[in-house]
Amino acid sequence: MTKSELIELIARKQTQFSQKDVELAVNQIVDSMIDTLSQGSRIEIRGFGSFSLHHRKARVGRNPKTGETVELTDKRVPHFKPGKALRERVNDSKDNTDILA
Amino acid sequence: MTVDAAEGYTLTKAHIAQQLSDTFGFNKRESKELVEQFYDEISDVLVSGEQIKLSGFGNFELRDKASRPGRNPRTGEDVPISARRVVTFKPGQKLRAQIDSFDGDN
Fold first, then answer.
1. What is the mean pLDDT of each run of 10 residues along chain B (106 residues)?
2. Fewer CB near the last or first residue (10 Å), C or N of chain A?
3. Distance (Å, rounded) from C-alpha B39 to C-alpha A49?
4. Is-contact B2 B9, C-beta < 8 A?
5. What letter would DSSP give residue B24?
6. pTM over 0.80
7. What residue spans define the domains of chain A?
8. Which helix (H) or strand (E) covers residue A41, if one does?
9. A43-96 is classed in which CATH architecture?
10. Which residues of A touch B23 (CB under 8 A)?
11. In this complex, do B47 and A10 lie within 8 Å of one another by their Cβ atoms?
């Protein structure tokens, strides 16, 4: 499901906001999460999960095509840890549903 | 609410709801419900077996893992790890680029 499909779904399931307002809100939520992580802060959504940054040390890598060695600098990568409720519900759904492509 | 104080700051649903109400003038209670609904719908879609693509942010994907032999790290005892379905997050291009561009200033 894409972001615009998610926006339609949310808009359909409630009566307080127009689809336009839901779209504004969803884009703001996503931007806020991007800004927070970009500034090195965490996100904690109870039941859903948390986002944080993991640090990758600088290392010498290799270009897989040419075999050439390349210096890779330190970097930070975003990491998501599903919350207990989401983890359990998704795992429990395993026997009743297939994963859609 | 700002995220200037990166040190020790954690974004929560309450902060996001406050931002929605500050930015768009939405009613506070309704903003809170909308934020709840956003994460609830994503959860429900994942539970239904469908993956989520939030362009700019990243994809929430599902993976079925086969059972495998495990071990209790404390007792050293062999404990089988059962087959399970897990959610994984693949950060998108924009998110990775913004995190990279902030490197060094932090």
1. 60 98 96 98 98 96 95 93 96 93 59
2. C
3. 10
4. no
5. H
6. yes
7. 1-41, 43-96
8. none
9. Irregular (4.10)
10. 28
11. no
